[in-house]
Specification:
Elements lengths: L7 H13 L2 E2 H12 L3 H13 L3 E4 L2 E4 L3 H17 L3 H11 L4 H19 L1
Antiparallel strand pairs: 1-3, 2-3
C-alpha cells in the first residue's frame, strides 16, 4: 500500500468515517456538522480528496472505507520505523522503552507476539 498522508483535519474526518462506515453521504454531512462544525461543501471537499487518495469510496451516496483504520495505522507505523530506525524494530523498541518502561503485562504480550511469530515461521 502506498503511504497516504493525512493532515490533522483529514485524520479527524477519517476517524469519523471509520467509526461510522458504511454511512450515507447525507448522514456524513450531518455528522461533520455536529462533530467538526463543518458546512456541507467542506465535508464533500475533504471526502473527495480522501477518495482520490484511495482511502474511502463514495458510491451511490454511500461512503465506505477502502482501507481500514488498522491497515492505515499499520502502514504508518511501518513507515515510521523504516524512516526513523532504518527498518529495525529492535532499535525502535529500545528507543521506545528507554524512557517509557514496559509493564509486566506489556512485556508478556510482546513475548506472546514473538512466540506466535516464531511458531508461524517454523510451519
Amino acid at each position: 500500500m502506498a503511504t497516504i498522508e493525512l493532515g490533522e483535519v483529514q485524520a479527524k474526518f477519517a476517524d469519523l468515517v471509520w467509526e461510522n462506515a458504511p454511512i450515507s453521504s447525507g448522514a456524513l454531512v450531518r455528522l461533520c456538522a455536529e462533530e467538526l462544525h463543518w458546512k456541507k461543501p467542506t465535508t464533500y471537499t475533504v471526502l473527495r480528496k480522501l477518495c482520490e487518495k484511495g482511502l474511502f469510496e463514495n458510491r451511490n451516496g454511500t461512503v465506505t472505507a477502502r482501507i481500514s483504520r488498522a491497515e492505515y495505522y499499520a502502514a504508518k507505523s511501518e513507515q515510521f520505523v523504516e524512516e526513523t530506525f532504518h527498518g529495525s524494530l529492535p532499535a525502535f523498541l529500545a528507543a521506545f522503552t528507554s524512557k517509557k518502561k514496559l509493564t509486566a503485562a506489556q512485556a508478556e504480550e510482546l513475548q506472546r507476539m514473538i512466540d506466535a511469530f516464531r511458531e508461524e515461521a517454523e510451519t
